[in-house]
Amino acid sequence: MAASPSESETLLTPSEVAALFRVDPKTVTRWAKSGKLSSIRTLGGHRRYHEVEVRDLLNGIPVQGTVD
Amino acid sequence: MAASPSESETLLTPSEVAALFRVDPKTVTRWAKSGKLSSIRTLGGHRRYHEVEVRDLLNGIPVQGTVD
DNA sequence: ACATAGTAGGGTAATTAGGGTA
DNA sequence: AGTGTCCTAATTACCCTACTAT
């Protein structure tokens, strides 16, 4: 049985994603707001990103249907 | 086991690469478009270059199979 | 409750992409 | 063929203060 993909996923902080792309953390936030990158919100409002999605993006694999 | 080369690599901005080669950033872009230099893209379309590859090129070590 | 580091938010300057040209 | 420069539009970086994460 396949569990929901939303669970058991390693989450990355904005600064970690920023380091992988060599951009500013604010830029990653901008990507999330634009819907270019899906994001989870902590109860305090901070964003967390799926590692698998980020790594796919780094490898040039486009991801679809991701709205913040 | 060889992991994806896109991971765990320090990336350089176009201007940083340009400074290392003492050329205009536009020239670095042309190298990437020609496939002479591999590059990844930010979600906004800006290019980032692998530092190790740039270092090798600076040392006269040719790199193969790099298509923009 | 306190301290440190990271993040959200808004606003402004600096880079970059892309085409065309010298 | 290869590089530098000019242009506009888009993207990204840095400034700040307040709030969250640990």
Automatic annotation (TrEMBL), chains A, B:
User: Which Pfam families does the entry mention?
Assistant: HTH_17
Gene3D superfamilies according to UniProt = 1.10.1660.10
Give the molecular function GO annotations: DNA binding
Which chain positions lie within coiled-coil regions?
none
Question: Residue limits of the Helix-turn-helix domain?
Answer: 11-59
Q: What is this protein called?
A: Helix-turn-helix domain-containing protein
Q: CDD domains under this entry?
A: HTH_MerR-trunc (cd04762)
